[in-house]
Amino acid sequence: MAGGGAGVADLCGPRLLNQAVRLSPSDLKAALGREARALGFDAIGFTTPDATSEAGRYFLEFLGSGGHGDMDWLATNPERRADPRALWGGVRSIIMLGVNYGPDDNPLDILARRSHGAISVYAQGDDYHDVIKKRLKILARWLNAATGDEVKVFVDTAAVMEKPLAQAAGIGWQGKHTNLVSREFGSWLFLGAIYSATELPCDDGEADHCGSCNACQDICPTAAFPAPYKLDARRCISYLTIENKGPIPHEFRKAIGNRIYGCDDCLAVCPWNKFAEAGREQKLAARDALRAPALAELARLDDPAFRTLFTKSPVKRIGRDRFIRNVLIAIGNSGDANLAGEAQRLLDDASPLVRGAAVWALSQLMPRDAFATLASRSGGEPDLSVQQEWRAAAS
């Protein structure tokens, strides 16, 4: 097994289990690191539950500003997110793990192909939650067998501040775009956490290496960063195309361009990416069908076809209607009059969210007189929000 450590399956045997129990904390930490890398983790670090008190204060300030938008789950039991011991009083050590998902091309290149959709790098393969959680559970069982102490695993599914904890564990630092940056992997790390009742030696935290660079702030199409290290999620394209359940506000539609699920701009422009390599986990690798899908083909997806295309993908969770809403915004921004027919067909869609986005797309692609004629025939629209789209587009 890679790393020279005992295999996970081997430690199920009573002889090796007894040996593992006698490991010193430092030897146990080293063995855990070998097992983590054998399971496909690219980074591992150790910290304590009291290492993120300052980050917890900033988080509460973020909530107080309303910067989380409609992500109400962030504001649920905020004290648990601010202090790991509030989530689980028995935690004595936190093991942070990372998996590299670096792309094999420049994510910004797709933005010039305006008749094709840009899907965030992290969503072009299988859902990382499923991939990483299985491995975390295997590693956690190893640790439990070695110590007899309780463990808990988290992958972006509970009140855990992964990025500040990863910085405290020495994996990287939280950059000016508020995402984790690694000197080895750039901006491309998926994170998971194991909370353990075993006290393990902690690592030194990582220093901030952003320096005077503001590339991530400068590139943001919607000015979602009011200041370095601060994000207003309500202006973020990832929030607008994923978390936002209603129509995308008019003020951001042009800036979204052809981004149909998430946005990688602030990640992709980071200079530290020059040290990054493409991820080696095949399940997280981009599927060919999701690298640069044609907007015309995406606009024709009904619900079964949407579910089939995005099987095991995180895109699936927003549902077909919100996704087609995003596709129509991209169609409106494409400058391709040939796509107007796709938008016009969707004026009869069952979803008011889709119909409203289709109105806007047509207003961007059709000649004014042709659109005015079409708008004059829209009096039978039953949904108030879609009626408002027609009025706004015709004015």
Number of separate strands: 8
Q: What general form does the structure show?
A: elongated
* Major sheet: arrangement of strands: 1-2-7-4
In angstroms, what separates the terminal alpha carbons? 67 Å
Give the averaged pLDDT, no decimals. 89
Count of DSSP helices?
Answer: 20
Structure, explained:
The chain contains 20 helices and 8 strands. It has helices at 14-21, 25-38, 53-65, 72-75, 78-82, 84-87, 128-147, 162-168, 215-219, 237-243, 250-256, 265-268, 288-291, 295-298, 303-309, 319-333, 340-345, 352-365, 368-376, 384-394, and strands at 43-47, 93-100, 118-119, 151-154, 173-174, 180-181, 189-196, 259-261. The strands form 3 sheets. It has a 4-stranded antiparallel beta sheet, sandwiched between helices. β5 and β6 (180-181) form a beta hairpin. α16 (319-333) runs parallel beside α18 (352-365) and α18 packs parallel to α20. It starts with 13 loop residues before the first helix and ends with a helix. Mean pLDDT is 89; it is low at 1-21.
Please outline what is shown here.
With 395 residues, the chain is α+β, with helices and mostly antiparallel strands.
What key attributes describe this structure?
NADH Oxidase, single chain, 2 domains, 20 helices, elongated, alpha+beta
What topology does this entry show?
Blueprint: H1 14-21, H2 25-38, E1 43-47, H3 53-65, H4 72-75, H5 78-82, H6 84-87, E2 93-100, E3 118-119, H7 128-147, E4 151-154, H8 162-168, E5 173-174, E6 180-181, E7 189-196, H9 215-219, H10 237-243, H11 250-256, E8 259-261, H12 265-268, H13 288-291, H14 295-298, H15 303-309, H16 319-333, H17 340-345, H18 352-365, H19 368-376, H20 384-394
Parallel strand pairs: 3-8
Antiparallel strand pairs: 1-2, 2-7, 4-7, 5-6
